[in-house]
Amino acid sequence: MATVAAYVRRSTAEQEDQHQIDSIHQWIDDHDLELAEVDMFVEQASGASSTRDQFGDLLEEIEHGGYNDVVVWEISRIARKGTQAQQFFDAAEESGTTIHVTNGSVRRIEPDGHGRLIADIIAAVAAEERRSLIRRTEAGIKRARDEGKWTGQTPTGFVTIDGYLRPNLNPDYDAGETGYHDMVDALEQLDDGASYRATAAETPNVTRQTLSNIDGDDDRRQWYLSPDDVDDERVADALEQDLGGLKNRTS
Q: What's a Gene Ontology MF term here (predicted)?
């Protein structure tokens, strides 16, 4: 049974984790170990999440004395919340597990407490960085909304130009886009009794589920079928700018 474990975490699907893996593999080589002798715990999850499966499994193993050594690339990979990092450090200390960090100002956190103070500080800084990022993100979203910009996922049949929502009147189907008029046609077909499945099959780059979600949302349906009655000012402004084109289509 392996007595060494390694933990690798990336926050998003777009984020690379190969640098973490390469650094840990180098640590394994430097300590004359074989990769098969190390249990790898690898996952994609936010460091602030309390429901990380791999992290939870590793923590449980540590609490039961399953490993003598645990290797991570950076302390921030363990957690972005101070309480979670402290729980991890405490479990390792109580079970006699040494934490090895391949990239950072502290490289070992010993069960006797050596290196713990610096690790605690680094974890606290990481937690504060996360809080600051959340505050900046929230402030940026509020500022964008105050400016009338669209801040969420671009709705089907629309595009965003310089942050502002516009109906997509010239969709690039090869790029996976759906036109505004395509959605108008689709919803009108549904109102005439067509099925979601059949309508989706005739509508470029739209799934049955997307149609069902939009059709079941009265506010969202207005964006396509009653543009003069739209309450969301960002959507109303976007449609008003192209109102001439919409009127020409229905005239």
A: DNA strand exchange activity
Q: Which residue spans within 102-163 are E strands per DSSP?
A: 108-109, 158-161
R_g over Cα of the chain: 26
On whether residue 85 sits in a domain, the answer given is yes
Least Cα distance to 78 among 55, 62, 61, 95 occurs for 55
CA distance 236 to 220: 12
> From the DSSP assignment, how many helices (H) and strands (E) are in the chain?
11, 7
Give CA separation, 46 vs 8, 100, 157, 187, in Å.
12, 21, 31, 38
- What is the residue range of 118's domain? 4-135
Question: Within the chain, what is the greatest distance between any pair of CA atoms?
Answer: 80
d(CA 78, CA 18): 16
Residue 37 falls inside a structural domain: yes
Cα–Cα dist 139/119, whole Å: 30
Question: Could you report the per-residue pLDDT of 164-179, keeping only the tens digit for each?
Answer: 889 999 999 999 999 9
Which pLDDT tens digit goes with each residue over 14-25?
Answer: 788 899 999 999
